[in-house]
Amino acid sequence: MALKKSELYSSIWQSCDALRGGMDASQYKDYVLVLLFIKYVSDRYTGQRYAPITIPDGASFKDMVALKGKPDIGDQINKQIIGPLAKENALSDLPDFNDATKLGTGKEMVDRLSDLIAIFERKELDFSKNRADGDDLLGDAYEYLMRNFATESGKSKGQFYTPAEVSRVIAQILGIHGAATTSATTVYDPTCGSGSLLLKVADAATTKVSLYGQEKDAATTGLARMNMVLHNYPEAEIVQGNTLTDPRFRDGTVLKTFDYVVANPPFSDKRWSTGITPGLDPFDRFRAFGIPPDRQGDYAYLLHIVRSLKSTGRGACILPHGVLFRGNAEAEIRRNLISKGYIQGIIGLPANLFYGTGIPACIIVIDKANAHSRRGIFLIDASADFMKDGNKNRLRSRDIHKIVDIFTRGLEVPGYSRLVPFEEIERNECNLNIPRYIDSRTAEDTQDIEAHLRGGIPASDIDALERYWTVCPQLRRVLFSDNRPGYLDLAVPKEAIKATIYNHPEFVIFIEHINAQFAQWQQRSTATLKSLEAGCHPKAVIRELSEDLLAHYLGTPLIDPYAIYQHLMDYWAETMQDDCYLISGDGWLAKPAPVLVKNAKGKEVARGWACDLVPKPLIVARYFSTEQTAIHELEAQIENLSAQIGELEEEHSGEEGVFAEFEKVNKAGVIARLKDIRDDDEAGDEVAVLNTWLQLTAEETEAKKTLKAAEDDLDKQAFAKYAKLSEDEIKTLVVEDKWMTTLAAAIHSETERVSQTLTRRVKELAERYETPLPQAVSRVAELEQAVNCHLERMGFQL
What is the Cβ-side half-sphere exposure of residue 471, based on CA atoms within 13 angstroms? Predict the structure, then answer.
């Protein structure tokens, strides 16, 4: 059976538990990722001629498995596996598997390393069989691990990883996906970390490109090299060294230039100039622009990028917001960059996205090719679009798509984006702080003094809901009536607002239109999805499906197409992605498998069965609805009997109640009590209660037996049904009953959101002005007089 992505990720993440002990995440990540690398290259390249990675004899993962349990396992891994592998493939700074300070000594080290190897030994992690062409399943797993490690490493040690969402934004706004790339197209990252940003740009290109990266930290450089191999870029040139003091990519004595340059350098590097004499920079990075201040290295990295770009090159750099408005030397550099027209755009990002810092950052986009014809700088304020993810913020798929769409099309959206002319920037002394040019603040909800004094809802507040009245012009006349010029009254009771909106003929037509719109997309997409075959590329599937859905809803009134898009992307991440990988690996195969759980002795035992692609509830709903209905009726019967028993016990549990003396009400106790009072002529009422209790519990027990038998029988029928399913039936179950039913519910919730938003606003306005001030004052006086009268009657004089 093909391996689901979610299972792959969770299985590998378990390996972290084997090492956590007292080790920091930034340390144990090295061991886990090296094991992942060795397992992958062993599965992928062992015995292959001309493979990009050479596996020396005796240095494969299989040889590592043979070392499990040996007292010198750590030393042997170093000598037999790590050493030869590193030597043959020019890998360096791999972790020491015999480090007692990190892995423990004696049996502790043996057990820890043996357990770690055993996790990667699992048959589900056979990477030679579980990688769909065009879908970097393993590379994505590597990214998943890097993200988790960065999260756990904390602020001080999470700098080796650029969040994948930010990397995707940069990769797409560079325009490499639409360029005529070849293997000669060059992409460079001067502070590449683990290489995630570099690889995202490469992934966006239509052809394979040439990658170059430099990283200061030696251990992280090793991670980047392994990352390149796992993403099928073993030929990428990743070098170690300080990019500012010793740039390794040169053409003779000058810097090598590239088609694309991207970077996420350390923010405000206070030691950037150590080892450099900026005024005598041999690579001429600062002369034309100015020398960055000694304690702020942001522009040093940006100017290195500018110098490393070809005359037709494009680049993007992630920097803190301070570079947009700080003065003195940085202001001069900023002015010179603006005057040359190199800055195409700036994208303001939300705060707390990055693992090394919580401050907000921006993406500065450099474009040399069109510098002379540029009229201004395109600004985007995307700071408000994100979701919370633990203690960090994260860009959603919709946020990424919106940024890319707006930037690449140059669309000006009020409160979000603007092309700011150079003349305006000059008037602001080349200060590029985004709020100077884009007011993204939510409009203040003003209070109307006259409405508070005289009543009535201001017509201006109703006019502000124009987008609703454009779709439902008559609805406004139903909801409001004239009060006086400029003011309206609510024409329906407050509690009837929602029903009035939802049942209005115009709104009904709007909902019918939205439903028909989805049905049209559903019909088209159902046919496409049912045509999937083994070997399909899941990433291509979701790309085409999601883009089609977004385009289908663009321009739809009252509906945010990016919200619709996000529903699909959420469901993809939750369910559809795994399903598509199963289809890619096995085709339309629905085969139930036992669910294995560990018992008290740690042994795996079967507990029922499950089928990932076609879960049991789908089979039951389509083929055994009658049996399921009978089960629901039995459950309702049992619930009713249980309630009757509970009510009976509650009614007769008082001080003099039948059950007052019972420590616990059970069958044995009730029967014993009946025996005790069988000759008591005055205990008739008590006998009746006890017999009723026995009768109800007997019915409940019998109903539970019947339910258990019905459930077991349904379980057997459902299990047997899988073997009889045709491929067309499986496609219907998956595409129609599973995928489309879920998506329909999620997307239709957007129409409910429309009515709820309008209802909430209308009610808010009605309540705000429903009691004018004179009326409120009069009511207060009435209440005060009533209180005074009560006090007088009680003998108090005011």
Answer: 23
Among 93, 120, 153, which residue terminates a domain? 153
- pLDDT, mean over the chain: 90
Please answer whether residues 141 and 12 qualify as being in contact, where contact means their C-beta atoms are separated by less than 8 angstroms.
yes
Which pLDDT score is estimated for 356? 67
E-assigned strand segments in 150-255 = 186-189, 210-215, 237-240, 250-251, 254-255
Domain of 8: which CATH number?
A: 1.20.1260.30
Return d(Cα 219, Cα 224) in angstroms, integer.
9
- CA distance linking residue 630 with residue 635, whole number of Å: 9
pLDDT at 517: 96
In a domain, 69, yes or no: yes
Alpha-carbon gap, residue 85 to 595, rounded angstroms: 39
Give the Cα-Cα-Cα angle 344, 347, 350 (nearest 5 degrees): 170
Overall domain count for the chain: 2
**Model confidence pLDDT, tens digit, residues 188-237:** 999 998 898 999 999 999 999 999 999 998 888 888 888 888 888 989 99
Which of 2-11, 82-91, 171-180 has the highest average model confidence (pLDDT)?
171-180
Q: DSSP 3-state assignment of 163?
A: coil
Task: Provide CB contacts within 8 A for 468, sequence distance 6+.
Answer: 475, 476, 558, 754, 758
Q: Answer with the one of 120, 153, 186 that is the final residue of a domain.
A: 153
Range of the domain at 638: 615-724
Looking at residue 359, what DSSP letter applies? S
Distance CA 343, CA 335 (A): 11
Two tokens, residue 780: 């207060």
pLDDT in the model for residue 663: 83
- In angstroms, rounded to a whole number, what is the distance separating the alpha carbons of residues 385 and 393? 10
Among 623, 618, 613, residue whose Cα is nearest residue 590: 613
- Within a domain: 636: yes
**Strand pairing of 258-263 and 309-320?**
parallel
